[in-house]
Input
Amino acid sequence: MIAFNKYYNHFNLISSILIICSLILLVFKGLNFGIDFKGGTLIELRSSDSKINVSSLRDKFSEMNLGDVSVKKFGNDTDYLIKFENKDNKKNIIEEIKVNLDKSFGNKFNFRRVENVGPKVSAELLKSGVIAISLSLAIMLFYIWIRFEWQFSLGAILALFHDVIVTLGVFSLFSLEINLSIIAAVLTIVGYSMNDTVVIFDRVRENLRKYSDIKIFELTNISINETLSRTIITSATTLLALLAIYFFGGEILKGFSLAMILGVVFGTYSSIYIANTVLVRLRVSQKTVLREDDQK
Amino acid sequence: MLYFSKLRIIFITLFTLLFIAIASSNLFNIDDDFFDKKINLGLDLQGGSYLLLEIDNTPVIEQKLQNLTTTIRNFFKDQNIKINNIKIEGQNIFFNVDDQSKQIIIDTFTDENSDINPYYPRFKSHQLNIEDTGLNLKINFSKQGLIALKTSSQDQAIEIVRRRIDEVGTNEPNILKRGNNRILVELPGLDDPMRVKSLLGKTANLTFRFVTNSDNDSFGVEKLKYEDGIDEAVVSKRIIISGDNLLDAQPQMDTQNNQTVVSFSLDRVGAKRFGKATSTGIGKQLAIVLDGKIISAPVIRDTIASGNGQISGGFTFQSATDLALLLRSGALPAPLNIIEERTVGPDLGQDSIDAGMIALAIGFLLVIIFMFVKYKIFGLITNLTLIINLFILLGILTLFEATLTLPGIAGIILTVGMAVDANVLIFERIKEELKDEKNNILAFDSGYIKSRTAIIDANITTLLAAIILFFMGSGPIKGFSVTLGIGIFTTLFSVYFIARLFTSLYVSKNRNKEKLI
Output
């Protein structure tokens, strides 16, 4: 048996620091919102001429008066991702860019993807993203509150907050782009983290009923160990699937799978070191579950 | 938990085979409506354009209020009430009347059978609100009035949008209402959305009006620019004929001067008016105005009584074709703005499919190897279940002709990774049970029973997340939530019916074996 409980305090401290750092990052550095939430235009280009390099392309774009333009390589050597704000919401901007590029480079570019999100739509998307995440947290809280006692509910929700905040903190730290698919990833993380916590909690509750003489400090450790191989196997297979998406699923899914990978790692960690420690700190005992059983 | 009746085994086998057959139908072309169901590919996989259009209703509201001022003036003139200082400010009409008439007007507007202010009994609201500000009377659209106005302009606009897109001839466009002032257009397989965008961006309000150089025209005059944006002309506000009078419009080659023109034919009313105008106005310039810009202003040389004519204006064949198309399909009630656009080229779509499939294959393989190494014979059972699970998932997507997007493929891969969870929970539990329980069959039984609450709880939480995503997400994200959500049900089915069936067969055969798992 591994003594997970020996490090409860250490990891609680580390998690607190992580959460505080993440919050500081989120408040002061903020998130790197993509055009979905900020509005603007995105173009994915593929050039048929490998001699064209990113700096000449960047120069060309900055001559076009598009405001703040970002030109980056995207996966392949011949693929580029161009982003700009398109403040005036010009209607024929893509046409103009095409003409301009053809003039300077010849007909070398294939417009593989064009996305243009107006300010009104991006504000709405941001709002619905925030609502979706808040709503999912609220619903999870409610579900756990029905299925378990309130102490468990608190533990699970703290673990969820930890996972979401720290994942977003990592995105802020490395200025990774937040777009619609990241919201989908965060919601899936919420589901996954909950899933993981529930499995351990289920065992904790079962053991609480079974043993009256074991303190919750020991009991959580027993439960974690009993479910440990399941925790490892499920995280491993999920991570294997996600790594496959990350490395082979193409550039578009990279952000999504990265967020999910982080979420699975944090989710697994938090089920052990946050959700359970809440039970310990709240001094959950056999009485807690038996009282509930009586009511039922 | 381990017992299966013969009937149940047959049912499970048939069910599984059915879904494998349905899923396989994606690979074949069967000439039958029922059997030829296929998973639709989302725009991000097959390439195409997604456009969200917003109707700008401001001009419509202003026009309605403008008309209303005339109506109000005439309506109360008949009752010998004089309306003074009538003006439009913002989206309100203001006017003054003498004090004793004030009440009559307010009563007229608030009467449920009012001729001037329609009443919607369903919403208990009039179309217009009237308010006595003390200084004057204020009239504006009520909330319901605005909704009715927006809905009606949306209805008209979607019809025109549909006609224009049909004329371009893209395959299977999807044109839907969103809210009461938006239209969603999905154009699968469209390579170049520029043309559609420019066609949808034009109101196509066509009018024929005389060019005047005097200011004293009883209808008023306005100064309009030519299409080149430089030249100007003063044009009467009196409309001789408008786009509504057109029966047909076609691009044509004018053989006399080798120019591309748009030839049109007018309906009876239009032809009559056009004939009259061209007979009285010989020598005058007739301006052809499209969306507030003059296309051309030819000099009338002859009376045109046939109702057929030509518009020339330095067109290329393409621009003449587009103008003819716009004129044929009619004018939009209000301008449309493209507020969101997402276009994916067909080659990127194909690349995404390839990448998605490779990721799926590799993810699947990794999980299968991992499970086999970890659980041996039970790993095989899990893997077999996983494959069947994948077929059932694809089968259900096919049956509902669901739309598969790139995030949707990610959802399937994620399902593969998470689907083993339930089996792992069960097997681990059985292992624990076997520590105290020497009877294999009893241990398996209690393993299944005791792991059930955790499995159900765990799957419900993921399902809840998927449901929220489905309702809040758009386009590709919806595709993700669909595969994730359906994946949960297929996983539970395959774990509790298929995997359990295999397990029960194996355990019954080896009931006396030690170290079974």
Summary: Chain A has two domains: 4-34+121-295, 40-117.
